[in-house]
Amino acid sequence: MYYDPIKKSLGEVFNRTPWLRRLFYHLLDLLLLRTWHVHRELRQWSKGRTDSPLNILDAGSGYGQYTYWLSGLSRKWQILAVDVKDEQVADSNRFFRQIGRTNAQFAVQDLVLYQQPNSFDLALSVDVMEHILEDVEVFRNIHTSLKDGGMLLISTPSDQGGSDVHSDDETSFIEEHVRDGYNIHEIQQKLRTAGFERIEARYSYGEPGQISWRLSMKYPILMLGKSKLFFLLLPFYYLVTFPFCLILNWFDANTTHESGTGLIVKAWK
Q: Which domains, and CATH codes, for the chain?
């Protein structure tokens, strides 16, 4: 099935008013387990920095929910959010103007080509690298674009069942992915090749997270892929599953996993 058309349909529903878009962001923050892990790392990074004028790159901004969250942590931070999709970038710029968030700007850029030397204190890449074949080139560009001491934070599927692929003869649940997931040692080596020296990597989406992902994302998307009529059933579906997903997300984000279908990687220049 194709994941992007489903995401586009959901975006069209929630983009009708700024209030609905804010609601959409908050729902994504609660439902998407990767957001729990990413926010945890960003809170740790931001300690003692909210009063400093910093520059942040959201590398592959998508809907813009991470730029929205970061821009609310400090008005002194300037955030550049880049994506390859013109329509999504224009829509995000329009929304941020409507809500008066002047410390964030969206631009159309290809991460394989884009670099802005020694410009950013933090770069964020959430569920992006599994879509890009030329990953080492992107890592090099981000390394070049970071200031000395700057950090890159990555969330991406692992090879332990990422993209819901568990054997060699399976295909990805999300067909837009160019790789099913990274080996934890492979991504660290690629980051070293790109110039990063200090790297930390850990698994996310352990057993609790995998159950939560199926309940909160996989099954609803499969239903929507069959018929848009399932939009009418989603509120009732989440009324039952949502409390369980929150509990599972909390356990996953606050537990160390020996293996998992996701990776959280931090690399410093």
A: 2-205+263-268 (3.40.50.150)
Contact 18, 43 (CB under 8 A): no
Please list the residues that pair with 55 across neighbouring strands. Answer: 78
Buried b / exposed e along 67-99 (16+ C-beta atoms within 10 A): bbbbbeebeebbbbbbbeeeebbebbbebbeee
- 150's CB contacts (< 8 A; 6+ apart) are 120, 121, 122, 123, 268, 269
Do residues 60 and 128 touch, judged by C-beta distance below 8 A? yes
Nearest to 263, CA basis, from 80, 16, 67, 41: 41
One digit per residue, the tens of pLDDT, for the chain of length 269 reads: 445 555 566 666 667 788 899 988 998 899 899 999 999 999 999 999 999 999 999 999 998 999 999 999 999 999 999 999 998 999 999 999 999 999 999 999 999 999 999 999 999 999 999 999 999 999 999 999 999 999 999 999 999 987 554 445 544 555 567 788 999 999 999 999 999 999 999 999 999 999 999 999 888 888 877 777 887 888 899 999 999 999 999 999 999 999 999 999 999 99
pTM of the predicted structure, to 2 decimals: 0.90
Round to whole Å and give the CA distance between 195 and 156: 20
Q: How many helices (DSSP H) and strands (DSSP E) are in the chain?
A: 10, 7
Q: What is residue 214's DSSP assignment?
A: I
* 3 state DSSP class of 151: strand
